[in-house]
Amino acid sequence: MNPYLSFALSQRPDDRLRILAADYPVPRIGWSLSSNHTTHHGARCPSPAEEITLYVLAGVTLAAAMVYLWRGALFRLLPRSLRPFAAEEGPDPRGADDHDDVFKPKRWTHWTLLLFLVAVLGFVLSLVPVILAPTQTMGLFETVPWFAVVVVTVADRPTKTPRILLVQYFLMLLGSIAVYSMHFLDQDLLHLEPTQLARVALSALALLFICAMPLRDPTWDVANIGGGKLPPSCHLRSPEDNLSLLRFWTMSWVNPLATLCRTREITEEDVWQLPFDFQHTRLYMVFREVKGRLLPCLIEANGLDLFVSTSLAIVEKVLEVTNIRLTSKLYQALDRGDPKEAIYWCFVMLAIDAVRQVSKTTANWYSRKAYERSRGETFIGLFGKLLTRAVPGSDATEKGPVEAQHDDDDEADEPQTRMQRFYARICGGRKKKATAPVAAQPASNAKVVNLVRGDTYEISQRFWDFQKLVSQPVKIIFTMYYLVDIMGWPSTIGFALMAVFLACNSLLVKKLIQLERQRTAHSDKRAQAVSHFVEASRPLKLNGWTRSWSDRIMTFRALEMLKRLHMAYVTATISTLNVTGGTSYPLASIALFTLILKRGLPNDVIWPSLQLFSQLEASVKEAFDLISAFWKTTIPIERVHNYMDEPDRDMASSVTAGAKNISFHHASFAWPSTDVAVLRDLDFEITPGLTIVRGKVGAGKSSLLLAALNEMELQAGTFTRPDEPIGYAQQLPWLQNKTIRENIVFQHPFDANRYRQVVHACALAPDFAAFAAGDMTKLEEGGVGLSGGQKARVALARAAYSPSRVLLLDDPLAPLDHDTATSIVRRFLQGPLAKGRMIVMVTHRDDLVLRIADTVVDVDHGTARVLSPAEVKEELEHPYHAEDENAHHHDDADHSAAAHEELLSGGKIDPEDPSETGGVSWTVYLKYMEAGGWHLWILLAAAYGVSRYCDISRARLLEEWGKDTARGPDAPGSGYWGLPHADRHPKIWLYVLAALSAGQILSYGAAQILLARISVAAAQGLFKTAVDKVSRATFRYHDTTPTGQLKNRLIADMSMVDGGILQPLESFVFNLISLIMSLVAITSHQPSLLAVLGVVSVLFVYFFRLYVPVSRCLRRMEMRYLTPIIANIGVMQDGLVTIRAMRVESHFQQRHLEAVDDFQKQDHFFWSMAFWLDFRLSMSSAVMRAALILLMVGLGTAASAVGFVLTQTTIAMAAVQQLCERFAQLQLDAVSLERVNQLNKIPAEPSGGDEPPADWPAPTDAVTFSDMSFRYDEGLPAVLDRITLEIPGGSTCAVLGRTGSGKSTIANALLATQLPCHGTVKIGRMDLATVDRTALRNRITFIQQDPTLFPGTLRDNLDPEGRFDDDACANAIHRVLGPQWRLDSPIDAGGKNLSQGQRQLVGIGRAVLRRSGLVILDEATASIDRTTAAVVQRILREELAQSTVITIAHRLEAVEDANWCLRLERGRVLECGPARDLATNGK
């Protein structure tokens, strides 16, 4: 209790009054009932405003206490979207019901005791006036807030930050300051009452305690949370999980990252884990329980964060314009010559800036939380859909540019959603004639990548922007109110003009939306073409099609860039209209204010009005942009919803509990989303043992396995299968970018004995012995580095190693040589690994397996028949099925090394490619600017310079007008620019202002047009260079570089280059010009102010030197960690059937969650650093402004000059801040530009140079290898070692040898994929080392075992370059594939709508069409049945009679007509000469 009051209460009444009157600082504490107050601050106390303040404060604090006491019931009333989602719970989680138990025992901490003491002491002090004057009601109202605080403190016993108490104490402190401020401004503050001052101090002290308290319950474990003296580590959670309010608001918890990065580049090991609420493994577990479409689910999961961020954003925006409104009070004080009041308003504005910045930081953090979680949840949803949808996702046929453009225009013109239709009516949209609905195509691989990389960002960005969408209109309302309050009704003309410009912009935005929809369609096409270009880079180069495919990409790119240019022009028009509005709003209002009201231009009117009009212009523009952005987001939302609405696979109907066999009962199957039956009337049962499935090409063998895996749609009949994982080896082996051992073991526990059995059974031990790292050799993407036979055996080993009882094997023997295939049949199919299993194997090698088969199924044109034992026995009597007597010998001799365990381990996993370190080189920016055109950049700088000059001149003119008004109409004019007195001749001044405004508008519009040209020219030039570099890369580069990395750079990084890098670069140029010109203007007025600006500039540079390095490192890591997310999609698309069959979806889901966490944590801490920087820059700017005002007040500067200098200083400091931010942003966004430029460092393949003769290679040109050695890269062992051979021209040469002997390397040497490391290779007289590579591959036809097909028609795939007429193409199709095929038969990407045999027939059709002088067939008929293969061999003999044909094969019947034989073993020639009865000798 106050000592003065204690002493007074111990005396007699008369003595007490006498002592109070003599010694008490505030003498008028009354006792009599006639007194109407308890304390006096001045003569007019209490004022009505003071009474209202006390009433409101008492009511609000009491209401806050009631909210706390009834929080349990109120919590239950909240909608789910306003409740915490996936929040951390402690060891003793409390639900909503526990909130009702207010007095539940809790542990106390020292914070609890301190807050209790403050509350009790404050309450006691508030009782003193009541005791001194018990009849005064005002004293009672002063006790209510403290009583409410005591109630909450006693009930809550806070151990962590009490948010209710924070609000109560803040309001109490604010109320007390407001009361004193009222008396000070009324010049009525005569006395300071000690008890009130003590209560103010206690409120401030309580706020400090609360700000220092932990936000997290101290009883929860904090051992795994970073912070304190612990260095940043990936093993610790983010310090955000254990902060105080002070550290949270100042973002000081990220200091350890910035400090560490000052000494070295931070790595992944130095970055904390995501905070608990951000971790996607937990989010996934909770989010999957939310049912409904994706967008409503996202809103439900992030509603509370949106609510908090939006509420605080409204506070921040209102305080921002309120501060500007208060500057009019500052100018009034200066005009009256009252420096004390001016200083008072200076400190008030500084305090408001502090509160505003706290609100802004908190709002940004919560909106960022909503952004990150919604993005992660969308990632999870898209990936989860990938695991469950019925269609694995082949790419739909690409349209030509003309068709695509026409369709896009139609789609763009017709609004799709209810909101768009409503908006279209508002904007005058016309009705279009209804068109027939087009069936939706399943999302392709490239489209899913676009959904993840583009649409997901668009949707989540709207969660980040939602707070602005709500707060900006509120800010506009307050700004308009303040303008009317300052200028009166003349300001409404500005509002009317604003409505006009808004209507114009709405029409332009409608056009922009149409163009954006069209551009997105072209962007999808371009991304799809780039995706296929990257995935098929090797076969494209081998066939010499790289240039034509690059041209196709550039065609789509040209259409996309044309739309971007149109959009840039529309955007430039919108920006110019906004600037036109920004200059015309104040100009029109000033004209009415001066001409109609004839009040001149007082300083307290013009300067706040200019700032408010500027804020209004920016707010309207941002609100309009936000509405446009939210409207445009209907496009990605629609695309994502269409993808999420694709049908899922029906699991329940086929799985039967207790079933042991796979049964078909009159079952018919079709591909999902189609009505055409592929398999019809299947009626048989698959039982344990070995079941062989045979049939011609395209008969439906692979479809039968897919039907058994429930990957096809059951149309009729019934189908049952066991409810258990199934081991599946698909026809095109699916291998991950991991070690061979990891691919075999897959997701199962490692069992050394079983692993050795599998390696031995699949004949892999000799291959492991040939690898330096054994089975720990890391495979490149798609298994690059292994031969076709090795890939097939690794995939077979994965199925064999799995514990699955049921195995479905799709033609694993096709790419194997006879000896290896025989060994696998004996060791695996007849060995211990097959016992007790149900094995279904599709094969054309029935000569190896028919004798041991338990069941044989023949498939023909979609129907299946089980052969009877008699039919099988009759077929076995054919000589073709005679048993090989040498099989046992070869088996033991070739694979004895399998017993050595040391071949199964060892080796080191190759590290990932390193990223750049240090700052982004200036050459990166210079190359971008050079791509845009130096002359355009110079013109842009000149246009911005003219625009800023006009703006500063206009402000200078207004300053002089303000001086004339302050002097009065009778004083002489300033004579500025020779103009008469402003108040007496306002029209002339208005004409000059209008001329300057027109100059600013025209120069700014010219700058926007230049920007449009620069952006398109730079993006197109850089993209063309990048595609050209990738197309000319070496084969080794494509073999060792993950396709996901190239896709990320050519799609994701190029998207940043297209639309992201220009804005910060342009802003950097603009703000540099603004800074220079503003400094010149300030120097001409108050040179001494440059010292303050210099100090703050140094401070800004210091902050940025801390910020830029760590943010750059985080952004680089972010871009690197985006690649695994994109790569996961490709992995899932290719291996989806295998993953589903083995039921390991959860593992890949978890891997995806970890990849998302690794990516998002880089992004999370990057933006945390941005908030750290924003807080420091904003507070520094606020303090700097206060210092400038105090300095100018001290110097006695006139109000008009203060207004001009303050305006230009604000622009200068904003320019400094923007320069730092844009430089930092450039350092970050330029990482994408840097990554694109890194493609310029791709090793280029030697071009060769010599153009061969037109008739080369002629049928008589022999193929000669002279002492030739071939290796795939420097440092790797030679695959072919000093071989010398000759293949006569016109011959048909069979190349034989076991898997890995070097057969395919012969083809690579002939196609010059790598120059020989020794010796020469010649065709005729031409040394292949000197021949132009593109010409060489165009003159040679190379058909692989797995031919690459592209989305389009059959004609497009047969002749991708369009070199042959339709008749020639039709003839080749009918000869090879049959008359049922047409030129326009659709082909999906990769030929996914064809069987492997049909794909091989298309490849053979290419050879028949081209009829090159040299044709190389590499296992080109491995997946074709014997009957069809015999027909194909006859066609090849007839059509290629004038060609040299080199056939690489394992099946001897494929080369039985060869007249020359080359036999290889371990890279050496065993035999080269005329062929003699290959079928007999081979066996």
What does this structure look like?
By secondary structure, this protein is α/β, with parallel strands linked by helices. Helix 10 crosses helix 37, helix 14 runs antiparallel to helix 17 (491-535) and helix 33 packs antiparallel against helix 35 (1043-1059). It has 46 helices and 21 strands. Strand 18, helix 45 and strand 19 form a beta-alpha-beta unit. It is elongated. It is 59% helix and 8% strand. A six-stranded mixed β-sheet has the order 5-6-7-3-8-9, with helices on both faces. A six-stranded mixed β-sheet has the order 15-18-19-12-20-21, with helices on both faces.
Features:
disordered N terminus; 59% helix; six-stranded mixed beta sheet; 1483 residues
Proportion in β-strands: 5-15%
Largest β sheet strand count, sense and barrel closure: 6 strands, mixed
Overall outline? elongated
Strand order of the largest sheet: 5-6-7-3-8-9
Terminal CA distance: 110 Å
Count all strands and give the number.
Answer: 21
The overall average pLDDT, rounded, is 80
* Number of helices, counting only DSSP H or I runs of 4 residues or more: 46
Residues in helices, as a percent range: 55-70%
Radius of gyration: 40 Å
Uncertain runs: 1-39, 393-439, 886-914
Q: Indicate the structural class.
A: alpha/beta
